[in-house]
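hi! just following up on the protien thing from before. the input was this:
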Amino acid sequence: MSEVRELDAVEVERLTRRGLRLAQLTVAYNVVEGVVAITLGVLAGLVSVVGFGIDSGIESVAAVLVALRLAGRLRHGEPDERKERLTLRLVAATFFLLAGYVTFEGVRSLLGGEAPETSTPVVVLLVASIVVMPVLAALKRRVGLALRDNLILADAAETRICVLLSISTLAGVVLFQLTGAAWLDPVAAFVIAAFAVHEGREAWEGELVEDGDDDDD
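and the predicted 3d structure came back as:
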């Protein structure tokens, strides 16, 4: 495990403000992304793209929760441990909410035999997410590890889920365009659900700092 440098009060405040700005940026980006994704997904009949849009909304909720707690820290000078734990559990719950929704829609799509249409705008949206979200996730993760803060790391994990979701959704859409196999889209949705459950469990159990230390060894 890597050695952790103690931060002084000025550094803690600076990093907390950075985490707050990143959370606010997440909300702004994901609101726009979610509206566009849901609209395009409904028009094209792509369940995984609708799930992607729902994820953007859920990620916005998680980022709002994180931003509220970080703003509270800056006002009061220190975290409220009880509220921090509650907020972390609420953020973890958003992962499970996403997994449940996407699984339900994927099963419904498979049983109904729905065949999605191709959509070039969807591909453009997903590629944009693959470009933007890894940068945002990395910045959040850096702040979270510096502060050894599970709440910020959970927010980073939620953003990382968005990256993985973008990749798996894009793969499903492109493979459908190439093969015409309608089952690829709900399968991509199930992959999204698996990622969400894994990260949700880690957030709920507060294991994100430990995992982050291991990754940096």
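The mean pLDDT is 80.
Helices lie at 9-44, 47-76, 81-112, 120-147, 150-179, 184-205, 208-215.
cheers
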